[in-house]
Amino acid sequence: MSDKKLMELLADARPRRLDPDPRRRPDPAVLMAHPRPVRGRRPARRFAVAGLATAAAVAAALTAVVLSDVDTDRRVAPVVEADAAAPSAPVPPKTARELLLVAAERTTTSTVDGDGRYWVLRRELGSRMEVGPAARRYHIMLRISEEMWLARRPGDPSVAVQRFLGAEPLDEAAWRADGSPTRWVVPGLDGGGKPAAVYTTAPGPRTVRPMRGHTADNNFLLAGGPVTAKQLAALPTEPASLEAWLVRRLRQAGSPEGRAYALFWSGEALVTDLPVPAAVRAAAYRMMAGLDGVRLLGEVTDARGRAGMAVAYTREGDGGRSETRLVIDPATGRASAEEERNAAGELTRYTIVDSAGHSDEAPPQA
């Protein structure tokens, strides 16, 4: 694809509702929407960047948090001559390949490159859970905010800052039929009568804990195994070479997933929250653009209601059909969210990346 064609795509890709209102100052939260590592056979394992290796581990982290809570510039419109041709409306990308190539081009000029003692990742995680009476089961969405201070140098401690944001009923009618509870007790699996967790609609306290066992040598996960910050910084910047590197790592890890899907979620990790140079992120986007099975969903909103465009990959697994979505802001090339949906199209888990970058500051203290 020529540079001229890519630049045309860049201009056309931005969703119209993301454009600033010429009558008022643009909202930075809209214009600068900011943009997880991978392990195992199911996509939920990509919570593993900081030890949250599976969806169950996400729930466990939520449980730990919840149980602790139990005890004026104006722009002038341009003058248009009467015989001047009106500009055509922006044309969004027509394929997943076009969107991913646009994102690759943009990410080379919108970077979080740098150096520092810590890679600081701020995100929101959501995981769906079934609750309610046996005859009228329904689902709630458990939400947690997470701030990970991942050490990049030997001797520095890695730290996790978490807060339970509250549970939200997903089926309002079933929730009301259950008496509109604001608290759910999820029994333990041992049958001993003690609750494994208590979830409420109210947020919990902010907690700070050291991430024991996490060091500069194993803070990051990619393609089913641990990688260091130096390894990530040295990844290939050419799509075919990057793909070959990932395939070797996936084989070493014994990944049971199909090649295209495993490469898709490995690419997701590289473009969302891993500390890699912009050229590596661009290579990951271009690699994904060449994968079979990736399709364009068009304009979407993420779990927080932020606008973007999405690509998706659908897989058949032990738990049935699921769809993994990657939400991208084509104006910046940043991947801002990742989601999983079931065969019915229901949201089962999500990750929203608020920010990711280097810092020399000291992490919060417990």
From TrEMBL:
Keywords, alphabetical: Membrane, Transmembrane, Transmembrane helix
Biased composition regions of type Basic and acidic residues, renumbered to the chain: 12-27
TM stretches of this protein: 47-67
Lineage of producing organism: Bacteria, Bacillati, Actinomycetota, Actinomycetes, Micromonosporales
Region listing for Disordered, in residue ranges: 12-34
Organism: Phytohabitans houttuyneae
InterPro entries referenced in this protein's UniProt entry, alphabetically: CU044_5270-like
Descriptive protein name: Uncharacterized protein
